[in-house]
Structure formats: structure tokens, C-alpha cells
Design brief:
about 90 residues; alpha+beta; Alpha-Beta Plaits; two-stranded antiparallel ribbon; 4 strands; elongated
């Protein structure tokens, strides 16, 4: 018989998002695919004239290090790292 997962034992990973704004071409794939809606279009513009992504204020600790943003970015302009202090 199948048993449900013990949710008290499992933890959700936490991550930090890093954007290399000079590489971004404003496709917004990272914003669209983020499952926790951590990213938004920045009001700032890079040297190429594109709005790059930024972390939404108040959601700095909501990244779950799924790396979808890194996978979908055609310019390799965004990545995440796992927060080693996450419990």
C-alpha cells in the first residue's frame, strides 16, 4: 500500500538569483517560467537597451533553486545558487 510522503521531513530548497544584466536581451522567458513569480522586468536598461529581470521586492527569499530560469535563458544571463543556510 502506498504511503504519503512525510512532509515534516522534506524541505524545500532555497536559492539566490543572480542576473548578468549585460547579457540579457529582454526575452522575459525567466519571468514567465518562474514557478514562484520571483522575477519581474526591471525598470533599468542595460547597454543594449533591454530591460533585464530583477527579483521582486519582498520575494528575495522565495526562490526554490529550481533553475528553470537558467535553463530557459538563451543568453545564459541568469542563474541560481542554492542557499547553504536553508533549513
Amino acid at each position: 500500500m502506498r504511503q504519503p510522503l512525510d512532509l515534516e521531513v522534506l524541505t524545500t530548497p532555497k536559492g539566490h538569483v543572480y542576473v548578468i544584466s549585460s547579457r540579457c536581451k529582454g526575452c522575459k522567458f525567466c519571468v514567465e517560467f518562474c514557478p514562484k513569480d520571483v522575477l519581474e522586468e526591471s525598470p533599468g536598461i542595460n547597454a543594449k537597451g533591454y530591460h533585464y529581470p530583477a527579483v521582486v521586492l519582498g520575494k528575495e527569499h522565495d526562490c526554490i533553486h529550481c533553475e528553470f530560469c537558467s535553463v530557459v535563458c538563451p543568453e545564459l544571463a541568469i542563474y541560481t545558487t542554492e542557499d547553504s543556510k536553508a533549513a
